[in-house]
Structure formats: C-alpha cells, structure tokens
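Escalation from tier 1.

The customer reports that the assembly of two entities below gives different structure tokens on two consecutive runs. Tier 1 could not reproduce it. I'm attaching the input and our single run for tier 2 to review.
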Amino acid sequence: MKPPSFEYRRAASVDEALELLAAGDGDAKALAGGQSLVALMNLRLARPVTLVDIAPIAELRGVSSNGSLRIGALTTFTELEQDPTVAQAAPLLAEALPYIGHPAIRNRGTAGGSVAHADPAAELPVVLSALDATVTVRSRTGERTIPAREFFRGFLMTAAGHDELVTAITLPPATDGAAFEEFARRPGDFALVSVACAVSGGEATVALGGVSGAPVVVGPTAVDSEDAIDAFAASAAESIAPPSDVHGSREYRQHLTRELVARAVRRATAARRS
Amino acid sequence: MTRPDKYVGKGIPMVTAGRFTRGMGRYVNDLPLVNVKHVAFARSTEAHARITSLDVSAAAAHPGCIAVYTADDLFPLLVNPYWGGWEGTARAEGSPLARNKVRWVGEPVAAILANSRYEAEDIAELVDVSYEPLPAVTDPEKALAPDSAVLYDEWDSNTYFHDEFECGDLAGAFERADGVVKRRFTAARHTGTPLETRGIVAEYDSGLESLTIQCNFQDVYLARAIIAEVLDMPPSQVRVASPDSGGGFGVKLPVYPEELAVACLSLKERGPIKWIQDRQEDLIGTSQHRDLIIEAEAPYATDGKMLGLKVRIVSDGGAYGVPARGNTVEGMMAAEDLVAGGHDIKDYAYVLDVAMTNKPPTCVYRGVAQPVTVFALDSLMDAIAEETGVDRGEVRRRNLIKQDQFPYETATKGYVMEPGSYEEALNKALELVGFDEWPEYQAKMRAEGRLFGLGITCGAEAAARGATWYGKRGLPISGQEGCQIKIDHTGRVYAALGTTTQGQGLETSLGQLIADELGVDIADVRVTMGDTDRTPYGAGTWASRCATLGGSAALRASEELREKVLKVAAARLEANPDDLELADGHVSVKGAPSTALTLREVARIAYFEASDLPRDIEPTLEAVHHFDPPSATFSNSTHVIILEVDPGTGAITFHRWVCVHDCGTVLNPLIVNGQLQGAMAQGLGGTILEHSVYDENGQPLATTFMDYLVPTSLDVPEMELHHFETPSPFTGLGVKGVGESGTVFAPGAIATGVADALGVHVDRLELSPSAVYDLLMRRGNGDAGSVSA
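Tier 1 run:
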C-alpha cells in the first residue's frame, strides 16, 4: 500500500494551480485535504503523474453569506461545523456535517475535495443535490457555474474537466424545512443509504446517497399527509436500483431508502404539520 | 507508589503503559537496521489457476531491482517443505512462492528485493504471470463432492482431514428421547486484524552460519522449529526473537509462506531482509477463521435435559495447511469442545470433514471454534426450551455439569474439567438483568412496536491446552511453559518466559506474582519474553495460557528462588532457614525483625562471597521451572444481553450486557476486565461487522478497512462484568484462562438475543444489518417495516 512515484508541486495561487493542471494534460490532480485521493493512491487505484497541492491558496478558504451561502473549496468540514453562519444559512448542511467521517477526517477534508472526488456515498454531494446548489469551477480559459444535479455524473465522475479546479460551492437560501438521515454500518463510515430532504411550500425534495453512481433526486412532491409521506417514500425506494455488495443487498438498501426517506420527510415537515 | 502487602489481586496499572503511550515501543518495523533490503511480493490475482508462464525480465530490468525470486530459485533451499498438520491429515509439498499452481487470490508468486518498499512495490507490478484459470472451489460442502475441482493434483479429493467418533449410547438416547431438535448452524469468515500487522526481519550471518529472525510471532520456539526444519539448519543455529508486538489474537501463530520466503532470502542474500505486511496483505493473506458448519441433532426429554448430541461438522480449511497447526484446528476443536462446554453430554457422535477451498487457510483466532460451538449449544438450549416449555434459564441449569461431577472427564476423553461456578454464574447473571420479569417487559416493549430480545450463553472456555493436545498428535508445539528467574547481584529480579507479549499486560500480572513471592517492589521486577536464545523453552502465547501456565512456571521458579535466598541468608545469620521470612526486600528472623539482611546483601553474598556458603549451596540466585497442565483449564462464563432490533434499519442496539465470569484467582482485575472487554468487542465484531467475504470466483471482497469493519469505541456498548473466583486445582495460584472467553461467549449471546427479539431461528453467525433485515423478512408478514407484536 505505497503509491507509485509522482511529482509534487505546490501552487501558491489559483492561477498557478490552473497552469499546472493544464500542463498535466489529464495526469495532474489537485491535492486538497487528501482524505480520499491519498488513500486511492496508496491502493494504486489513482496514479496521478503530478500532484498539485493547493493547500496554500488562501483565497479558496472561507464562507460568506448574503442569503445564499458561498463556501470556498478549501474550507474544511470542521471549519464549516464551527461556523455559525453555516448553521443559520444552511441547516441541512449543518445536520449532515457530523456524519462525514470522523473528526480527524473533518479536520483535513475539504468541501471542494469532497465535491471533486464525487463519491456516491459521500454526504456533501447529496446535500448539494437536494438543495439544487451550484459548483463553481475555473480553468485557464474561464469560470463556469454548474448545477450540482448536473455536476455529479457517476461513480467518481463529475462534469469538471481535468484542467478545471473546483473553487467554490454555493447553496441557495434555507428552505422551510430540512432533515438529513443516514445509516452506515458504523458511525463515520460511508453511508449505506443517506437522505437529504428539503421542504418548500409543502413539497419535499430528497436526494439519495449510496444507492447509485451519483446522488438521485426525487421530488418535489406534495407531502401533506402521513399517507402522502409513505407513498413518497415508497416511490423513492422503487425509483432506484441500488447495488448489492458486502454491506447489504439491493432489497435491503431499497428497504432502508424507504425507511430513511419517511423519517427525513417526517422530521422536515414536523414543524409545519404540527 | 508504596508497595502493597500483596500485589496479586490488585488492579496494578500496566508497567509497560508509559513506554507504549509515549510511542517508545519497539516493533519489528522500528528495528534499526543497516543495509536492509525490502521485500514486496507479486501475488496471484486468481483463486485457482495453473501458472502457464512467469516472466520476471521486466521486473529484473527495473533500475531499483536488487533481485527477483520465484519458487524455482527458492525451492532447492527447502530441503524439507513442511506444510504441517495433525497426524492423519493429507500432506502436500509446500513452497513459500507458488509453484506451477496458485490456490488463492493473494498467494505470493514472486519476491522482489529493493532498497525501499516503495520501489519494491513498483517492481512487483512488472512481474508478468499468465494463468490458465481452473474452477474456483469456494464452498466447503461442494468442495467435498466427487465432481469438485481438486486443489492438489496429487490428491483425489479436497478432503484434508476426516474423522468419525462415537461414544456412550447415542442410539439409546434417541430412543429414550421425547423429541429431537435438528438445526444447522453456520458461521461467517473473519480474521484477527491486529493493529500491528505481521512483520519480519531475517539476517543470515555467513561467518557464524546462523540465522537471526526478528518477527512478531506468538510462538518463537514453534517458528524456530519450522524454519530450521524447512531450511535444514540446526535449530541451535537459528534464533527467533519477538520484539514488541501490537496484537496477535492467534493470527501471528502460523509460520506463513511470506515469513518462510524472507528466511530463505536472507540465506540467499546473506544480509538483513525485511518485510512488513500491509493491511491489504493482511486482509487477503493472513489466516482466517470460523467458516464452520455444524449440523446438530439433539434428543431431549420433556424436563429440558439434552440426552445426547450427534453432529456433522464441516470446516472450510482454505487453500493450504499453514505450518504447523495446519487448518484442521477449527474443525477438531469444534468436535472436542461441543462436549467440553460445561454441559453434561456423555452420548455423543461426530463426523468431521475439513475441506480445502480456494481461500486463505483457516487456523487459530481468539476462541478458535468455541464461538461457534457455544452459539450452537445455546441455540439448542433455546430450541429445547421452545419445544418443552421449560424456561430458557432452567433448561440451561438442567444441562450444566453438576458440582459433584467434577473433576469431569469429557465424552471424547479430550479433557478433565475442574470445578467452577457454572450454576451460580448463570443464576447471578439472570438475576442481574431481571430475568423473571423479562417476558412481561418484552411484551410491553412489543406493544410499543419495539423489538427487544434477551440472549444467553453460558458454559466453559477450554484454555491452556497442554502437551496432550498438540505434542502427542505429532506437532512441534510445546504444551508446557517455562520461566527462568534470576535475582541479580543488587537484589533486582529478572524473569524470562517462553511466552510472547502482544499487549496483554503479562509483564505486569506476572510481575505482581513474582514480586509477591520474592518480597520485592514490582518496579524491581523485569519480565522479558519470546527469544529462543534468551528465554526458556515454551510454547508462546495462545489459548489463554500465559497467566495459567507461564504464571505456574513463574510461581515455581519464584518459590525455588525464595528458598535459596532464605538458605543463603540463614548461612550468614547462622539461623535455620525455616525461622526466616522474606518480605519487603528483607530477610529477617521471624519474631525478631531487627536481625535482618537486605535482599541486596543476600544477593551480594550469593554472587561475590560464595566462599562463605556451605558447599551444597551453589553460587548465584537463578532458577528455572517448566509447567505442563494435566489437560487444560476451564474458566466459566455466563453472558446475558438485552438488545433491541430496529425494524427500519436492521441495526442492533445493546441495552444491557452482563458477563459473570470465573477464571479462578484474579491476578489483576484491571487486566482481566480489559481482556474480557477486548474479547467481547472482538466477538461482537465477528458477529455484526467483520466478515471476510469471497465471491463465487474466490475473489476477496473485503480487502480494506472500508469493507472489513472492525468495531470502534462507538460500536461497543458498556459491559457489566462480575466475577466469581473458583481456584483451579491444576495451576499455580488457582488461575484459569481468561483471554478468549469474551470472544467465545459474545456471538451466541448476540445471536440468541436477536432470535428472541424477532421470534425466528438464527442459524448463522453473520448478523449485519442486511442479514438482520433478511431475518425480519422471514418473520412471515413479509413486511419488515411494519412489525407488529
């Protein structure tokens, strides 16, 4: 479990990082917290020729809010957890953060890194998909903003080109209600199923994690009664064909999806229904 | 800390704790080495295949490559390939690197030497192997079928070992019975995952013609025997020493192909060779465990008594017999221990088959087969309770061996069991959880839609097996244990044992015992272990044997040394040794404490003024003793668990976990409780989380800690531990084994608890949430999400 040899470059600015990524022509990878990439390199499943360490780039750090919430790509999960703006502006994200790995992972892991890596069982892509958030990427030729629901393309695949760097994510203003539910074999593990639920105007939208190559969005659907919630949960479970693996069968994951969607929607609509 | 009157029985913190918590332990990987060459292995990607070509030219051409070795290069060195096993097991020629055929994914095919492990791994990727795939044999029952592909060309089947046994009047038991319970129990595969993986440094000195192995083996003398035999070297020219070791649990007992290859390479290269196993290599190549099938038929009477037991046992032995225990141990111990579990079973028969399959070998892991035998026995107890209407506690009470039956010879004559507190432990545990009120409580929770269950396991753990078990069956494994103790010329104490330490705290618990006997401060007792050049012949660390057997040897050596100290002092004080006592660092005349010598003064006489001593007292203060138990020791346990199953997720929540334990005399309650808690956590892990999964092609699916899940502190509930102390008449100080019993009793307690919560039979030790969901579906209403009372 030692990585093949690679070239290590430290980028002092976004522009320098973008130059290095472009020069790598597909064989360069940006290194942020390294919580996923380095493990993959040790398993020799990722073999970048050049690692572009973007850690020194201060402009990629930090959170700002003007109704919507802008998160710099290098902001760590711990920083997000400790930032009162996040709890206020993005309660769904705040609820999901403690599910991300363990404290040691959250200390190093970054928002941009999680998005760029695009693990289908990771929490952040699911939250962004539920909220219809956007991902901002930059290359030498310019900047573009991609809806999260289009950004995550499949297992570890995104809409970003190899010369593009994720620089920020932007979450829309908080919805009327929100809830995050997840079940993993152990606390801190990748989710068997995760559900991010956002409720607006009596309609629920859920994004499902761990059930497909990319987050699956279901809704918006009116959830004005217990029966409607159960029907919505059942339809969400029927809409997916999750994989069977060592952690659970397809049938089990579908069952879990139904259960967790129902739990999430009930919590997200609790205030309104009472 | 001021010295207590007596150390034994007190919760003395581990004397090694400071060193380890400050990061000052020295493990194999920390050894300072000069000019060391690092090994990486090219490994098989196929579960079962013929090697049609093996091209190492690209690897050899890599600028960092020192050498590439294949089986053809090493095989001539192996004068006596010893792929060991019990008498009666099928034999095959072995090789540390695959020859002609590969038999499991991960089997080493070539060894690469480089100046760093990084480079060695780069080069290993360049080894080009072509395979002709053969059908993968992954199911032990199918492996035994006549139409199965066969792993070893020289055999006509995959049967590695077959045994049949019958005793008593089993036919009569079936005739007398009011009913018969028939069940089939299976257990998933898992492995030990010590925090420190395997590692070895081998260095051949061509001037001395001697080989020094530093390796985290649990049994250094066994390793020496195997390595010397394989390399055709005199054992006296081979030194095997274990530095600090971070966990073992049994998986560091075998002498694996990689370690043998490294030993061979050091002979070839005449210098230090190092291999540190990484976690992926651990999860695909270290021995694995359980994977047992027990089909049981138990005739019973309406009063709840089981009248006899008939079983068929199939053990998935994996791809090869790992030296020296082979892969029969799980199966043979299941056969023996079903009737050594504390239940009075005299009419018994078993048929046992150990099958070869294309998976890593099964060998010994904490508890060996007993987690499965206890699961089977307690599930049978519950089945009999269900059939007869006798309550689950009472069925167990009626089947436990009665106090007046001890010493109790087991039906197979495998063991003689000493008395314990079987019924008291059961009664106490049931009382602690309010067993009498349980049905009412369970019904109340059911009415609220909550699935509560109560699980029970109770019985014996066979530990510390002596020479009768291994040595008499042809294996180079010593059942005895040795201890040498020296008091140095300043009165400080040095003890050396053939055991090894993986973090159990033996330096502390044995230090307590020795300090008490020799009347010294525990800070003045240094305990070392596991070095064939420096410690007495012993059998290492396994089977909960170190405090029982090592402790017994240490006690005897201490007693002899104490007598010698008194004799030396008596000569100087012109007193009768019987009138002297040794305590608190002084030898004094009983009743006249002012007439005294310090131990330091006595030591000085023994080392430097021996001319003053009578001729029948030899100079120096040294003693060595060896101890072999009559058969084994048996601690007893009852575990009662109250758990809850979430029908929405299949998750299990533990509300109570009571363990009432009796390991005889408790040397150190902190260590004993730590052993129990760690072992229970491993039992929980093996049941709920840790599964070495293989697909039908023999490909391993759990090869990292993302897929092989060990319990963390967040997964392990609070455990309520209580003790009885029924001393063993067989060992020094009355100590019985404790290291494994938590692992032995935890799985069955969880499984019977889940069965009680769901009202279904639980037949398999593999209770992941997904598996629990399958059980929920089996409840009959077909809708796990809407469970009703």
